[in-house]
Amino acid sequence: MAALKYAGLDDTDSEDELPPGWEERSTKDGWLYYANHVEEKTQWEHPKTGKRKRVVGDLPYGWEQETDENGHIYFVDHLNKRTTYLDPRLAFTVDDNPLKPSSRQKYDGNTTAMDILQGCGLTGKVAIVTGANSGIGFETARSLALHGAHVVLACRNIARANEATGKILEEWQKAKVEAMILDLSSLRSVQQFAKAFKAKNLYTDIKNASGKLDFNLLSPLKREYWSMLAYNRSKLCNILFSNELNRRLSPHGVTSNALHPGNMMYSALHQSWWVYTVLFTLARPFTKSMQQGAATTIYCATAPELEGLGGMYFNNCCRCSPSQQAQSEVTAVALWELSERLVQERIGRQAQ
């Protein structure tokens, strides 16, 4: 069942396996206790590890907590029309021992977007995902939608965007997904998209936008142009812009983080030169899948521990330090001002 899979109930943890005759239960406020049916007693500590634990996070999408006539807590899975006394969040318990923090990283390069969202309900959240008709963008949109978020697939090709929404609805017919046209290379299209989205009266919770920098050479002479250098400069600009966006908007409750999805992932970049095609083909067995590539985006967008935090750079769901140039506040401000000037010049020409 999809809901059980996303809730993590198909996974087991041998370290926390209970001895025969024991049962794991939870209180209304999420604390776990253990019932010994042989000796007819209960205790807070795990009988094997001695740890105290509690469940964290919201119930998975489609689940609801109820209490029966005897005062016992049970859980209703509305998607699959079943009830259980087993808390679906038990797969995601945390130790109640703040004095001994774990040094182990929770996620890594093998983590998928679905792994990040296990046990997470996104009902009421609204997300705009650009480039969502394929690749990492599609997996990002799909993962958010399958966990209850209202997802807008913003793409320049509306036909392909509609195909993508159809695929998600085939997987779960109650998913809240819609396609809207957005060509980020056209300021007119951006303006039209903004007006159309504002008319929907949806508050947006999540927005995803997929070398040495010399602002005078952002568009270098043709004879000096090298596609990979231009690509690297664009990624540096992404980080700088994200940092400055966060600096300007965080006082108003809007945060921005930059991230790296993974190296040599199979994308349209390889189409620019046959050498890239060969390199990407050779590297493909050793690189991330699109689901894995979407994991860090999903983590930055939904992790409770990042609530209200921005201006950071992430790789493999872990905060990292980018290059010194990417951390330059002076360069970030200069890029912002250049961007404003270019937009104003373009708008001025269109008005004429």
Radius of gyration: 24 Å
Mean pLDDT: 82
CATH architecture of the domain at 2-95: Single Sheet
Give the CATH topology of the domain at 2-95.
Answer: Ubiquitin Ligase Nedd4, Chain: W
Query: How is the biggest beta sheet arranged?
Result: 4 strands, parallel
Low-confidence stretches: 1-14, 98-103
Task: Report strand %.
Answer: 15-25%
**SSE pattern, N- to C-terminal:** HEEEEEEEEHEHEHEHEHEHHHEEH
Order of strands across the main sheet: 11-10-9-12
Q: What is the class of the domain at 2-95 in the CATH system? A: Mainly Beta
Subcellular location: Golgi apparatus; Lysosome
Pfam family, one: WW
GO molecular function: oxidoreductase activity
InterPro entries: NAD(P)-bd_dom_sf, SDR_fam, WW_dom, WW_dom_sf
Structure notes:
The protein has a domain of 94 residues: Ubiquitin Ligase Nedd4, Chain: W, CATH 2.20.70.10. With 352 residues, the chain is α/β, with parallel strands linked by helices. The relative contact order is 0.10. Helix 6 packs across helix 10. It is elongated and about 80 Å long. The chain contains 10 helices and 15 strands. The N and C termini lie far apart (58 Å).
